[in-house]
Design goal:
This protein is 0% helix and 27% strand. By secondary structure, the chain is mostly beta strands. The protein has a 4-stranded antiparallel sheet with strand order 5-6-10-9, with no helix packed on it. A two-stranded antiparallel sheet has the order 1-2. The protein has a two-stranded antiparallel ribbon with strand order 3-4. The protein is globular, with a radius of gyration of 20 Å. 21% of the residues are buried.
């Protein structure tokens, strides 16, 4: 799962999908149809930085930031591919989950995957955990989102119907 680290800066991968750090709010970008911003539980945006992940390597860091005026570095275009999604920056790079030995293990970068072996590393499963509805309008006309609202109820099988005996 895409995981917002507690330091409110770094982004990694984590196996615990139940963690609130693995939940991201999706905000539509009003001026660009089909483009979204992803906001962590800390109110910070998933950001494609220009900073290299490792010197001499192609991947660039993905961070959590809180820009005063969100720009294209916090905008992602979801590109559907079957049941999975690729998240593309405005500059053609893709959000990429890295594996392997440290420092690559559990890291997240953005770049253009060149090798066939890394094509799957840009495919993400998206799980809708909860649909947030806009709250009362503010003076700036932006909807108020409530990231700390209670989780959506679990879906369970309905209880068995009670058995009735015919009356005599």
């Amino acid at each position: 799962f895409l995981y917002a680290d507690e330091d409110e800066v770094h982004v990694t991968q984590d196996r615990n999908g139940a963690s609130p750090n693995a939940r991201w709010s999706v905000e539509a970008v009003p001026s660009v149809p089909g483009v979204v911003r992803l906001r962590s539980r800390y109110g910070r945006y998933l950001t494609a930085s220009n900073e290299p992940f490792l010197l001499g390597m192609t991947g660039r860091k993905v961070l959590q930031t809180a820009p005063a005026r969100p720009d294209s570095s916090v905008e992602w275009e979801p590109v559907r591919g079957g049941f999975q999604t690729r998240l593309k920056t405005r500059y053609g790079h893709f959000l990429r989950a890295n594996g392997g030995l440290p420092p690559w293990r559990n890291s997240v970068t953005h770049d253009v995957p060149h090798r066939t072996a890394t094509q799957d590393w840009v495919l993400w499963d998206v799980e809708v955990v909860q649909v947030l509805t806009p709250g009362p309008e503010r003076a700036d006309s932006a909807p108020v989102m409530m990231p700390d609202s209670p989780p959506a109820p679990e879906l369970r099988d309905p209880p068995p119907a009670p058995h009735h005996r015919p009356s005599k």
